[in-house]
């Protein structure tokens, strides 16, 4: 085992060094224009036996377990931050890309692999299935702070969050067909619908249960709520998988439900999961970097064949899959081309490539190295040019308004009170009014205003402006009343504007 090679003190020091390295390369990733996953993998290679020689790691089973765990955390965090109102508008094209798109990509890449290598048809399509899906970790990280048009960003994020189950299904099914004495292709169809159906149903049910539990169970410390949410994420994956469903789909659906619900300590939960997802991402890519051996990866055969397959994947298979799976949908040619280019490969194909190794399939190690090289090529070429391609195609949206401020609160679990964040906009009825002119519900007080990343201490004569972040302290029992009041005011403002436009 990986952990047996170190004493406790050495292992903790090594973990600290890996995390330090991961955090530092993440800081410089955007500045250098290189996707973070490339740098994390390089850190793993540097610490590996063919780098500094600090760690010798060759346990595919451990790499697989760590990879699956990290993917659950990353998918959960991505789902939490996905707004249902945005995803709903692109649900059909995203699901088409996540199912039909993955299947078409897998078939075309599998055909290319069959023509290039001495592999059977099943082994070739296994390679296609492994690299057939885009990667949630890579896509979420690539789009998080880039000002891509909302429609494009939502489509890509929803696709990457929901296409992992299809890739996992195809990969495991093909491995089963290769190893079975009497393979049955017809059994794959009902199995597919069973896995997707159970993933959707269990994800919805446990997501709703998690939301109710977080809101109704009063914990002594606010720090326990984020841990509670992670426990639901892991439980959702396990319960769904044990039931024969798609665990990844279940986690993403549950996160969508939780993230779009009113939650106690919402921001603590979100901030914790964002940090935890970063740690999971660092750990996963570093471990995968440790597992690969550069002397086996960067051989002439792997590099030449990997480049050829990358060209097929990026320039042929992915565009054909996008255009066919979105043939009747309201997307322009430029938008489809951008979606084709932004289909990044990342951790999912590498983790899936460990499954044939664990099963002991023939040529599995060579298959892993080939997948690894294709992922590196995709991440480096596509990931570093997303912003440039979006700009050239005029698909750049307004700059994302990401608040970098935060307000830390002492746990108020026993006091049954919560701090609500509300951002005003030009249509908010409270904009232009002074605080003493606004009638908030009883027991609701504005504690702070953030304007242009500066804290403003509110008092009666303070005027509310568009873009202000209002932090309102309210007792739990008045929270719904405050929410309705804010929504009514916005609706009232919009109605007055419509009436004014109609009269003019």
UniProtKB/TrEMBL annotation:
Topology versus the membrane: Multi-pass membrane protein
Source organism per UniProt: Halobacillus faecis
Molecular-function annotations in GO: antiporter activity; monoatomic cation transmembrane transporter activity
InterPro entries given in the database record: Cation/H_exchanger_TM, Na+/solute_symporter_sf, RCK_C, RCK_C_sf
Location(s) in or outside the cell: Cell membrane
Transmembrane segments: 6-25, 37-57, 63-80, 92-115, 121-143, 186-210, 222-239, 275-294, 300-325, 337-358, 370-390
Major localization class: membrane
Positions in coiled-coil regions: none
Xref: Pfam families: Na_H_Exchanger, TrkA_C
Record GO biological process: potassium ion transport; proton transmembrane transport
PANTHER family listed in its UniProt record: K(+)_H(+) ANTIPORTER NHAP2, NA(+)/H(+) ANTIPORTER 1
Protein name listed in UniProt: K+/H+ antiporter
Record-annotated RCK C-terminal domain positions: 407-488
Domain of life: Bacteria
Key words, A-Z: Antiport, Cell membrane, Ion transport, Membrane, Transmembrane, Transmembrane helix, Transport
Keyword Membrane: yes
GO cellular component, one term: plasma membrane
